[in-house]
Structures are given as structure tokens and as C-alpha cells.
Amino acid sequence: MEQLLLEILSLDAYRSISYYVCHLTLPLYRHFGGIKWNGTQNYLKPLVTETRQLIERSGISQETILQHLANDISNSSYLFVAQAILVYAVPIKLDDMQRYNIVTRQTSLPKDIHIDDEILACALVCYVLDGNRYSEWDFNIIVPEEKFFYPTNDYHLTKVENIDFRQSGFIFDNKYYLYNIFIDRKPLHAGEPIPAVFRIMQDGVDISKADLLFRLDERLAIELDKAEICHYEFFEKFYGPSFLFSQTRLERAKNITVHYDPETFNKLLMVIKRDYDTILNEEFWHIEVEQLPNIAETYKPKYVLTTFVHGKYYPIRKAFRHIDFIKNEYSIEKYKQKHNGCSNSDISIDYYTETKDEHYKIWCIENIDMSEELWYELTLVSLAPKYKILFNEMLEKI
User: Fold this and answer.
1) Domain spans in the chain, listed from the N-terminal domain onward
2) Lowest-pLDDT choice from 30-39, 213-222, 226-235, 278-287
């Protein structure tokens, strides 16, 4: 397996695609976050085609590749990529537990299941690119490798007209160029579709009457009809179903969803557990929302405190009958394992405090029907600002 990975890294197409991927600024495993496969991205196709050939020549089994992706502790997100592959790359429907057991080596991949070769190769390419990011940020290396199609001045800038700014890049001459990595892409105001610098520029000057020059490196360009241009918030879904109240589809007794901020790697965890109210003779769900801050290696305290909001949701009533606010305390060693969420760790991401004292309840309201909107508002105001967007993502409110 290691030899195969080295061969992918040594492919001629790898370096330029790695440079392009780095300018996307987002991890590639996000391509496996949807409920269906949308095809290999155009910029990855040359590398995926060659990787399929390498896999075939290597003789390495699909099961070996799948399980290698899932069990790399340096990038636990691929545990969920591996499970996603078993959703849309095999002809047989497997449930959550079957998929999890296969990718974590607890059971074998059934002999009659063949994984779609392109999807598996694409996942392996994404895994290699995510794990080996372009890092040669030396202009003495970068500049000689840049490719320019249009006339440039002495500083490699090209005069452009009729430019269409987007969030992650711009459209010029029927091509979509990713912004240079040194351009901050965050908007001036939440929800705006272009970076702040270009919003300010557009508002402050008539660009059509000015000379606007850009560094048009063709390595960052793709034909417009092949480009995938979309707007995204600066937070990313990690894995798990969205919570849509009574419309939520729960495949298991316990369902885990994680969203995270790719800049800080802070995570927001939601655990949904089925239960039954014997007094009301009605099914209800425990809805647990917990902030999981990323802890630096230099963190000195022995314990980590997290914010935890628990609710009991009755889907038939479309109401909550219990909401409480809690602070959880974890030892630093166990918390780091919890935050990492690796499949081969004794402590998973939904690990719970060991004593009631460590599950420090501060307020609770219960035994009355409370609206979905009330639970949403109480939970939202209980979260720190950076987690509010993650929470809204979970509920598909953004």
C-alpha cells in the first residue's frame, strides 16, 4: 500500500494538481459529504485516471484500500469517506453498522461486492492530496513554474476587463480562475458572494474605467463549462445527517453528526439517540449538542470544559419536553481522543463524562411541550459565536 501511495505522489500530473488543490483552500474529503456521488471533479480526472491504472497493476484489493483510508489516525475524516463509498459505490444497500464494521476491519468486504473503480480511485487521490499538501512557498520555486497565456508586465500581471468576481475565484475570458492563495476570501458581510477586498474595490471605484491587473496563472484556471462554482460558508460538514426535526431520517438507535471550522478545527457534535417514554407511551429522541474546541499541544490545564445542551424531542408531537444546559469536564488526555474521533481509539467522539459531577448541569426546563423554534433559540444563544454557524449548518438553516 505504501508503494502505491508513493507512485501516486510521483505521477507527472500530481504536482500541478496539488498546487491547484492548495488554492481551493478546502479539504477534498468534502466531495464525499453528500447523499449521492456527483462524479469526479474535472481538475482531478487526469490523476484519477492514472491512479486507476496504478491500482489495477498493483494487485491491491479494494478492501485493503478502503480500510487503509478509514484507519489512518492522521486524518480521521477518511473513516467517514470510506463509509460514504459503501453508500454510493456498491450495488448492494448496506446499513450504517455494516458499513462501519467493514471499514474498521471488524468484518470483511463481502466477496460479491465490487466497489466502483473510479469512485475508489478518486477517494484515494483525494486522500493523498489532503495528506500531502503543496508546501513549497518559495517564490524562487513558484515563479518559474507559473504558466501565462496572456501578455504580462514585468511583474507578471495582466490587464483584465469584464471580470466577474465570485467567492473562490473569478471568471475571465470564459475561464474560471481560483484566487491566489494570498488573497483573503472572507466576505465583508456574512453571506456576500465575493471577498471583502473586491467588494470594497467595486464600491469605491468604477472598475470599468480603471486598469485592473491580475496574476493569471493558467495552473489555477479551468474552462468555464467544466468549472464547478458554488458559494459556501467558511465552515464545513464533517459527517452525519442534518437535523430536520421530525423529518430527520434515523438509520440507527444512535446517530452522530459533526460539523467543523477548517481554520480552527473546532467541532460541533450532535448525537441523536432513540428512546421511549413509558409514561406517555411515545417515542422520543435525546438531542445532544456539544462544543468541541481544538486544543493546542501547548495547552497546560489538566481538564477541558465543554458546553453541552441536551433536549428530549418528541417527533410525533413535534415538540421538546426537556431542555437542559450543562458543562462537561474531561481530562486532557481523554478529551484529545474524543476530539480526534478515530475509529481505532478506545474513546470515540461521542464519549461521555464518567461521573454525574463531571456532567455539571446549570439549568433545566421540562414537563411541558416546547416548540422546535424555542429549542433552536435556546441552543443557539447557549453556543459561542463561532459555533452558531456550525449549528445552523446542522439544521440546514444556511
Assistant:
1) 2-131, 146-226, 236-394
2) 226-235
